[in-house]
Amino acid sequence: MIDAEIPFSPTDIALSAREARMAPLAGLGLAALTSAGLWGLLAMGLSWLL
Predict the structure, then answer these.
(1) pTM for the whole structure
(2) Which spans in the chain are helix H?
(3) Kindly report the CA angle at 38 between 34 and 42, in degrees rounded to 5?
(4) pLDDT at 23
(5) pLDDT per residue as tens digits for the range 6-48
(6) Which residues contact 15 (CB under 8 A, 6 or more apart)?
(7) CA spacing 20 to 30 A to 22: which of 9, 14, 29, 48?
């Protein structure tokens, strides 16, 4: 059997605290806007078909 060593030290994190990141809720807000837009497009498409 092969043993794999997986380190969980903080230095293994891909993004450091100094790098620029989006605000914590910006991704959630962007996802909500995208979802609302897609639902709107679906509603317009259905109303055009019916």
Answers:
(1) 0.51
(2) 26-49
(3) 170
(4) 74
(5) 766 665 555 555 555 667 788 889 999 999 999 999 999 999 9
(6) 21
(7) 9
CA distance 48 to 42: 10
d(CA 9, CA 36) in angstroms, rounded, equals 39
Residue showing tokens 């092969």: 2
Is the separation of the CB atoms in 18 and 24 below 8 Å?
A: no
* pLDDT higher at 3 or 49: 49
Please report, as a single letter, which amino acid is at residue 3.
Answer: D
Query: Cα separations (Å) of 27 from 14, 19, 21, 22, 24?
Result: 18, 17, 10, 7, 7
